[in-house]
Amino acid sequence: MIENKHTEFKQKVTPELEKEVVAxxxxxxGGVIYIGIDKNGIPVGVTDADQEQLIIKDRLKTNILPSxxxxxxxxxxxxxxxxxxxxxxxxxxxxxxxxxxxGLSEKGAFIRVGxxxxxxxxxxxxxxxxxxxxxxxxxxxxxxxxxxxxQLHIYYQSIxxxxxxxxxxNLELVTEEGSYNYVAYxxxxxxxxxxxxxxxxxxxxxxxxxxxxxxxxxxIKATHQVLDKLNLENRTLTKITAKQRKEQRLWNAIALREAxxxxxxxxxxxxxxxxxxxxxxxxxxxxxxGSLPEGLSKEEFFEGYSIIRNKELMRIFKDLDLxxxxxxxxxxxxxxxxxxxxxxxxxxxxxxxxxxxxxxxxEQDTQQDTQQDTQQDTQQVKELLKVFTGVHSRSELQEMLGLSDRENFRQNxxxxxxxxxxxxxxxxxxxxxxxxxxxxxxxxxxxQKT
Length: 450
What we know:
450 residues; alpha+beta; six-stranded mixed beta sheet; 18 strands
């Protein structure tokens, strides 16, 4: 690796860290800062990665204005057996960003030029400040101030992160004047935001078969309900040939989750329009209000660069493990679907996930019977089922099977077993979690005995 417009190396945390972060915040694409790699790209590691993370987070939270919480992500990676801290920075939506100590001046505001951070010219500072978007949900006052956050407290408690008395200010749910903002309204137990999941007969919107409405509650709860509903709709189709049995879900599960989360987090709520989800016989359409943010091209969008429209929402969704890391959503969707699945208009962004195939009710019944009566496991899946004694991690299963190649294990053993409904995930809503473990379903237990 070498330093460039989007990548910065630092051997250790230095006094210039805020300057580098500000420069990336003021760019359209953002960038990545590696702590523990020298200027030649050689990993040297950091002594105490966990402590360094806390120091970095506190410095960026305290020393940069406007608030950059929700716009950066900290990850510990291993390179050459050494701990490296990776700081992912998104392009900000409230430019110009600056170092609090020096204010809006050439000493405080920076831009990325090549592989270095340079002072932002006074004229550019003035131009950006005059264009700064003040009509963001963080600055909009909530239409009502008597708000309750019981649902939000429950979701934080469920992952062991209790909210203290200062949670509203810590999560940026208040305006500079101290009133609840529109983010707080969206997180409130009761609001007027309606989120619809509709299913149609056929290929158009003429015949509505089912309509579900989830909103009017905390956006976090609505997100979970939509994910649960679409997971139920994402049924498994089975095709049996003379040689093999092939099972696939209607839509790629990882891409589906990322598309749903992106729609909620990046939706433009300033017009009180929520994302919507529509199921047709041949596709799923996910539509969010607000097209690409100003300054972000389609090419940059597909490469994973992002300008975060709602940094406060991003921060909360990431706290609750709904978002894993900045900039990862679109690349994950593109692993399963082509770029033409995305449609950009002046006011909307729509993601279309084609269904693997459409089936009649008779075919569904036949498939269910087939799943129960004619399971034809591969030899690898049979070997995998035999080693299960309880709940196991990926590494434990590989070790029990004597397999060293992780990709071979995933493609030929684990994924086929999951797709066949024989093995289940301990954290189904977060398939790539480092804490993920696997266990046999009732169906898997039956096949283990045969």
